[in-house]
Amino acid sequence: MRSAVVEMFAWWAGLVGVTVVSITSPGPVELAVACAAASAGAFMAYRVRRAADVRLRGTTGALRALALLPLAAVRGCGVLVRVLARRQGHPEHGAGSAGCGCARAPTPAGPGSR
Question: Are the CB atoms for 48 and 42 separated by under 8 Å?
Answer without folding.
Answer: no
